[in-house]
Structure formats: structure tokens, C-alpha cells
Design brief:
metal ion binding; single chain; alpha/beta; manganese; Diaminopimelate Epimerase, Chain A, domain 1; inorganic pyrophosphatase (n-terminal core); 10 helices; about 40% helix; about 300 residues; globular; six-stranded parallel sheet
């Protein structure tokens, strides 16, 4: 039976590139697999796939009765809506362990590294499967994206070594320059509807029964948001109401200044003061040194809701 390899809802580059890379690996070791996706490509992911000659994986939202290999998450809120009716055969991830459960044994590759594609590179090494140049290229780009070109506190020595090895396979001499090109694509926000920006990299988290939505936009200069920040704030307020969420937070991350401005709409006016010891003013707060949603934003919030 063919398995479907799929990342989370509102997929980022790690989810899409990881699904493609893992499906190829599985097929090479005799396990039939097809890469799929749960949403539209971000501009950055589209840039990566075009550069290395890939089509987007097929959009597939229903998996009832299918075998599924989960990439880049283990949260029910981020998985296919009918995941409870599917058979999860494996998980590859680099986040905290979520609330997905299974009725049968499964393969798990979960490591505290900066990117799922770093873990997938370890899987290629374990199975001694040669990585094609184009797949190495997209894996490398996904790691550069997730680690913010090694600036993120989630970045490990393993991520750096994997990028160096994948760059050599892909024939990329200056991978940091390519990483900057990717973030320039991310920084192009002119003319994009506020809702599209808010949902570009957005995840819902169940925090002790409270639904908290957290989006992130990583750019090389926060001034690109000056003219549209009020539109973004209005949209996260609407998103909160539409989804009956306790809170919605949008991180506007400046990768050059290495910090994030948080736009916050919450039922708790003191949420950021409790989580980060810094109160928001008119729904905004700057957190110096904060680049990672996974490591620096989510854990502190979960402590508030514990």
C-alpha cells in the first residue's frame, strides 16, 4: 500500500521539501511513497522548488483509510482533519512531541535540531541512499530557512554540517548568498493581502484547552510592514474571532536586527508580560533576540496556560 508523506497545514519550506525528500528516500528503500501537501506554497517555497526544478506535491486534504507519514509536526491541530481515520506509519520532526496518537507501532525520527530536513539527511545516511543533487538543493534551502541562515537559537552543529554536505552535493558554492535570496523573496510583501501574509507561516496550538494561533513573517527589514501593520493587526483580530481562539500572535521577525515585534490579540491583556516579562503596548511588543517560534515563543506561552 502506498503511503502519503505530508507536512503540516499552511506548509512551510521544511514541510514541502521534507515531504519530497522523504518520499524519494522511501521509494529508494522499497517502500512506495507519494509526497503531498495540505495547503498552497509560500513564495519562498515556490522559489526553492523552481530553482531546483520541482513541481509542487499534489494537494491532498483527506487521508481517511490511507497510510500517512507525518513530516515537521506531531500536533493534531496541524495534521489533516481526518488523521484519526488514517494509519500513521511514521513521524519525522524537530519540534516538541505533540498530541498525535496511533493504534499501531510506527517509525519515529525526532531530533532536537533546527529543521526536519536535517533529520531526513540523517535518515539518508542511515539507509546509505545517495541524495540526488536537486533533492540535496531543496533540503539545504529548507534548513537555511528554518535556521534563519544559522542565526536561530534552534540551529545546531548538525544543521550546519548537513547544509555544508548538501551544498556540495547540490553544487552550490555560496549557500549563504542563496539563503539571503530566499529571505529577500520573503520580504516582498507589497500588494499581498493581509490575510495571505498572516497565514503565510501560521500554526494553531492547543494549550491546555485554549486555541492559540501563532504566525511568523521573517524579513530583512521590518520597515516593509510600516504601511500595512494596522491591516495585519485588524486581520489577526478577525482571525481570532473566526476561529474562536484565545489568542493570536503574529511575529514580525527582523533577521538582520535579530529580534521580533509581536502583534498580539488575546483574551488575556497581560499575556506577554506573563510569558516574556515584557508587557505589550497597544497590542505590540518588541522582543530582542527572539527569532524562533518553536524554541523562544511557544514554550513560554505553554507555561502560562499550564
Amino acid at each position: 500500500m502506498t503511503m502519503y508523506v505530508v507536512g503540516h497545514k499552511i506548509p512551510d519550506s521544511d514541510s514541502i521539501c521534507g515531504a519530497i525528500a522523504l518520499a524519494y528516500l522511501k521509494n529508494q528503500i522499497g517502500e512506495a511513497a507519494v509526497a503531498t501537501r495540505l495547503g498552497e506554497l509560500s513564495p519562498e517555497t515556490d522559489f526553492i522548488l523552481n530553482k531546483f526544478g520541482f513541481e509542487a506535491p499534489a494537494l491532498k486534504e483527506s487521508y481517511a483509510g490511507e497510510q500517512v507519514y507525518i513530516v515537521d509536526h506531531s500536533e493534531v491541530t496541524q495534521a489533516p482533519d481526518d488523521i484519526a481515520q488514517a494509519t500513521i506509519v511514521g513521524i519525522v520532526d524537530h519540534h516538541k512531541l505533540g498530541d498525535l496518537t496511533t493504534s499501531t507501532p510506527l517509525e519515529c525520527w525526532i531530533r532536537p535540531v533546527g529543521c526536519s530536513n536535517t533529520v531526513i539527511k540523517m535518515m539518508y545516511d542511515f539507509y546509505q541512499v545517495e541524495i540526488p543533487a536537486n533533492i540535496a538543493g531543496i533540503m539545504m534551502c529548507a534548513i537555511l530557512s528554518d535556521t534563519v541562515i544559522f542565526k536561530s537559537p534552534t540551529c545546531t552543529t548538525a544543521d550546519i554540517r548537513c547544509v555544508e554536505a548538501l551544498a556540495e552535493i547540490a553544487g552550490i558554492e555560496d549557500f549563504k548568498a542563496l539563503g539571503m535570496d530566499m529571505f529577500k523573496v520573503k520580504s516582498a510583501v507589497d500588494g499581498t493581502p493581509a490575510r495571505d501574509l498572516v497565514l503565510r507561516d501560521f500554526k494553531d496550538f492547543d494549550m491546555n484547552g485554549n486555541l492559540v494561533g501563532i504566525g511568523q513573517l521573517e524579513v530583512i527589514d521590518l520597515s516593509v510592514f510600516d504601511a500595512i501593520k494596522s491591516d495585519l493587526e485588524a486581520d489577526i483580530a478577525a482571525l481570532k474571532a473566526e476561529g474562536n481562539r484565545h489568542s493570536v500572535i503574529l511575529l514580525l521577525t527582523d533577521i538582520m536586527k535579530e529580534g521580533s515585534e509581536l502583534l498580539v490579540v488575546s483574551d488575556d491583556a497581560e499575556l506577554t508580560a506573563k510569558a516574556y516579562d515584557k508587557a505589550s503596548v497597544d497590542g505590540r511588543v518588541w522582543l530582542d533576540g527572539v527569532l524562533s517560534r518553536k524554541k523562544q515563543v511557544v514554550p513560554a506561552l505553554q507555561q502560562v496556560f499550564a
